[in-house]
What we know:
With 284 residues, the protein is α/β, with parallel strands linked by helices.
Amino acid sequence: MDAKIIDGKLVSASIREKIKEKTKAIKDKHSRVPGLAAVLVGEDPASQIYVRNKRKSCEDVGIYSEEHKLPASTTQDELLELINKLNNDKKINGILVQLPLPKHIDDSLILNSVSSEKDVDGFHPINAGYLFEGKPQFIPCTPHGIIKMLEFYDIDIEGKNAVVLGRSNIVGKPAAILLLQKNATVTICHSRTKNLEDVLKEADIIVAAIGRAHFVKKEMVKEGAIVIDVGINRLDTGKLAGDVDFEAVKKISGFITPVPGGVGPMTITMLLWNTLTSLEKSIS
Ligand code: GUN
């Protein structure tokens, strides 16, 4: 029997409904709405699409949003000045600096300059530290969305063997920490891992976040496994493909996320969630 499809759009819609209700309640009571500022430096086409989607999603739930599009030639100091202004702007509760940044800009320096109280991406070292400690303030959106999807489908994590493919600060590492906090036994695999197929074959839960189209094949997956595909890879044909060979793997896995329509919608939803949470914290 084919796997059950984890529908990210469905889970997203239910969370966005909650965000909309809470946003309206705050507006009625405090005359405030959550505000998100997205900062985009350069012309990366994928980033432009993300930022456009973010604006539309904010509108749909009643969140104020603004975009700051800067040329690729922007200096580090100019970018720091903008972030400083947004840190002090009362109508802005969340600041998102779209990655990747141009090569001449130091990512860490920029991410560290965003106020940890407006860090809705959860990338500031203070928020990474809180997450590590098990007392998260802002959880990075993609891994947060993955956990929300598992919860929505009543998938038990405790005691499961979870294998995370990829060790990025944005997805792999925080996903591993969150799964660990849900009492999974977690293995992180990466490009230097030996016998990757054998490790994957033992997984009850696979989180694939390596950015290689169709990397996870049917032979690497245990029957009934839960497969979460974070990959968004553009094929030569122009089509989008995940890190998992979806058509083959769905025949053996228990649950699987499609690409598109799986993890993708959840990332923006959790960004909206974090922006609302930021306003809630500031008025409580
Ligand atoms: N680039 C790719 N994913 C992300 C994300 O979640 N946040 C930001 N700021 N940039 C990204």
